[in-house]
Amino acid sequence: MILILLGPPGSGKGTQAKRIEQTHGLVQLSTGDMLRAATDSNTEFGRRVKAIMDSGQLVPDEIIVEMIDRRIVQTDCRKGFILDGFPRTVPQAEALDAMLARRGLKLDHVILLDVDEAALIDRLSGRFTCGQCGASYHDRYNRPKRDGVCDGCGGTEFIRRADDRPEAVKARFEVYRRQTAPILPYYRERGILRTVDGMADIDAVTHEIDRILGSA
Ligand code: AMP
Description:
Blueprint: E1 2-6, H1 13-24, E2 27-30, H2 31-38, H3 44-55, H4 61-71, E3 81-84, H5 90-102, E4 109-114, H6 117-125, E5 127-130, E6 136-138, E7 158-159, H7 166-180, H8 183-189, E8 193-197, H9 202-212
Parallel strand pairs: 1-3, 1-4, 2-3, 4-8
Antiparallel strand pairs: 5-6, 5-7
Helix pairs in contact: 1-9, 4-5, 6-7
Adenosine monophosphate is lined by residues 9, 31-32, 35, 52-53, 56-59, 64, 85-86, 88, 92, 163, 172.
């Protein structure tokens, strides 16, 4: 199964992707996570990409498309994958169609997490992830059961993203409206776009997605 999760920054794509990954045996392909891993290395490329990301702007389409094109042929993707944070522009959506067609693959579902933007700013400003397994948490809405200890892996190091600062959050919303929202009609016209209320609680959103995927 091939699935795209769409939605503005902070709409819960990463959290839901991690849940679906476990319940459906799919692999989460988060272009943001892949880029953050690439920018850990101290290369010129890494520094250039990190500067773009920290400002909240988009990394050029060619870099992202090539990254995904190489990733989806790896063996762990054979049962299917969840695209989280990709595509983010119409050219990326077109490139995805072309790369799937080339390999005889088909996009099964595109799910939009529909959210209220003002509430999202609140969500983004409090979020953090486990430095070891990547599980997502929030200062107010989703704290680990034991303070300072990851529920999933027991890790004790947590990370807050540089682009969750207020200026970068604002830029990311503008980018979403201008460059990413235009891909909604692209998928709506193809009849595969489904919308889920992303403001519902995390379990309710997962349940709704499971229903769409045909397993709840
Ligand atoms: P995310 O973790 O999905 O919020 O992505 C963090 C940042 O990585 C974005 O603000 C962009 O700078 C970059 N990025 C992630 N995915 C893409 C993409 N599909 N196209 C362009 N830039 C991306």
